[in-house]
């Protein structure tokens, strides 16, 4: 609960700082850069090192990749049907395809499933969401950005993406025991992600943008909060017959609202920043209701 209160307060603080004009116009860009280069790599180095793999690890990690693939197909079709701008389609795929499985997902999993559900949630987050962001997210951002980079340039962006580099290093360091001071250092740096990210979203949020984005916002959140978790539920439970707490937590993570880091990447690539920010902010609010509903549905899995 303390983590959720922190998220809300930082989000409100960002809005108040914007209204009071006490932060420079480039403050969100500076905060986003710190998150991508410092906070995210620190969290990755810390959590990957603490992973304990279970029998369901493949299904758990695969969930985020499946959701992103569904997002790409769904919004590509919707974009053609509604003749949406390329930047809007890219934003919907990127932000609608990746869930906030870490600093919102982890406290929500702990609140609904207890500490025993956290190990599954960490696998879904690190080997699922953040790995998918580092590869698929950066690829989509490059394809739909104005520059239209070549395949070689996209590969270079992935290879040089700080969270991807830290993920590769973290996997190599799993057999190595961290010194206590190093683990504490990573934790302190990683703890900056949630407050800075929510302040950044609050700084960028303009409620006046709702009027021109209602349809696309409804499409993005309808997919992320309802259609995507429903598709994973039908695949995992109805088709594959999977069950148990690990699967419950995985499906619960599939229903998380859009990932703030995905919105940051979308904004940096000029993929409809207004819509990307609205999806994160409004998604967080609506998810308190939708996640409670999904928890109730998943009780018998």
Please sum up the structure shown:
With about 300 residues, the protein is mostly helical. It has helices spanning about 1-20, 25-50, 55-80, 85-95, 105-115, 120-145, 150-160, 160-170, 180-190, 195-205, 210-240, 245-255, 260-270, 275-300.
Describe this structure in words.
The structure is a single chain. The protein is mainly alpha-helical and 301 residues long. The chain is built from 14 helices and no strands. The protein has one domain: Up-down Bundle (Na+/H+ antiporter like fold).
Q: Overall 3D geometry?
A: globular
Mean pLDDT value: 87
Question: What's the number of extended β-strand segments?
Answer: 0
The percent range for strand residues is under 5%
**Helix-strand pattern:** HHHHHHHHHHHHHH
Cα end-to-end separation: 25 Å
CATH topology-level fold name: Na+/H+ antiporter like fold
Please state the second-level CATH architecture. Answer: Up-down Bundle
* Structural domain tally: 1
> What would you report as the Rg, rounded to the nearest angstrom?
18 Å
Please, how many helices? 14
Structural class: mainly alpha
Uncertain regions spanning at least 5 consecutive residues: none
CATH level 1 class label:
Mainly Alpha
Can you summarize the main beta sheet? none
Q: Percentage of helical residues?
A: over 70%
Show the helix and strand layout.
Layout (H helix, E strand, L loop, with lengths): L1 H19 L6 H23 L7 H26 L3 H11 L8 H9 L4 H27 L6 H10 L1 H11 L7 H11 L2 H12 L5 H30 L5 H10 L5 H9 L4 H26 L3
Helix pairs in contact: 1-10, 2-8, 2-9, 2-10, 3-4, 3-6, 3-11, 3-12, 4-6, 4-11, 4-13, 4-14, 5-6, 6-7, 6-12, 11-12, 11-14, 13-14
